[in-house]
Write a structure and sequence with these properties.
Blueprint: H1 2-30, H2 34-58, H3 64-78, H4 80-83, H5 88-116, H6 122-153, H7 155-158, H8 163-176, H9 195-198, H10 202-231, H11 237-265, H12 267-277, H13 280-287, H14 292-301, H15 309-320, H16 326-356, H17 360-376
Amino acid sequence: MVATLGVAVGLMSVDQNSPSYLMPFVKPALQLDNAQIGAAVSAYWVMFAIGSSLAGAASEQLSRKRLLVLILASFAVCSVLPSVARNFTQFAAARGVMGLLAGAMFALCQSILARGSSPTTVGRNMGLVTGFAGNAFGMIIGPVVLVQVAVALGWRAGFLTVIAPMVLCALFAWAVLREPEPLLARGRLAKSSSFTEISDIRNIWLCGLLCSLFVAYVSLGLAFLPLYLMEARNLTSAQMSLLISLLGLSAIVTSVVLPFVADRIGRKPTLVAASLLSMGAPLAALYLESPLPVLGVVLFFGWGIAGTGSFWTGTIPSESVPARLVAKSLGLIIAIGVLVGGLVGPSLAGFAADRWGMGAPLQLLMGCVLLSAMLSLALRETAPGRRVP
């Protein structure tokens, strides 16, 4: 189950990040300006939120396994759409369709993992699927493969690379996955599990805002760092893809190390330190005039916030609310994060890039993590043994 869902989420991550790696080729071909690039990213994330919500509702009525296989197959078919786009409208619409399917796939994978894992392994399994597999495929393998395909065969071929693996993944999921236990078999959620109770918990709203800044930072970084490195720093496509792969490696390492550190020193200091450290990536891209290996090292350590996603989409909420409110709390946090961070961030960055230059989105990255550090200070500590009344 973990291996199959890990591959599914990994391939989804490759497609999710593909415009970032291919944008230096797509931008001149479709004659896009930076505002249009930001709008296309925003369209993806808005539809991602809608797809996640629709899949959550449908999965309570339909077979999760069959629904997942259907979405995997649809994902493979629809991966053709960005490759045939001829203008901004078609490209943004195609990315919106992929966002809808990606949101639905992600929600279903999380649901199947939660139902199919024991209480002692669910956290580990989710970390392997979303933290390890997602970053390994999407940010280490993805940039190297997609850029090489784009150089050899053209950028349109880059969007087609996930089709065959996704078809195989759908067939494998049909063959090996078991149908998770229906929700009704475990009883309905209590009526008191309402947003009224959640609204009184400060950590939940802070986690929603922190998730927004996290989504904005990662989506802006992956959308505009490749462009800046090639257009402003005059790096080759191979050099750019290598540096972006280091960001993926950083996300994998920090997603393991930071939770370990947080268990010992607390959630708040870990988040504050990771946020401030993450000013390093945009600062290095903008101002560090050093050899490529030095730039790579600074980018690796300066991308630390990428390993904190599980803090506000899992750890802190689950430690802040009663067990019966966890599901709705997570849904609220992810909805706020995706809609605010994924909609406002890329659109604002694209406008800023057209008005003030390609460095403006990277300055917005610094603002995101600075604000993240300030909001993290307002959290109530939830680490066992360090909770504050």
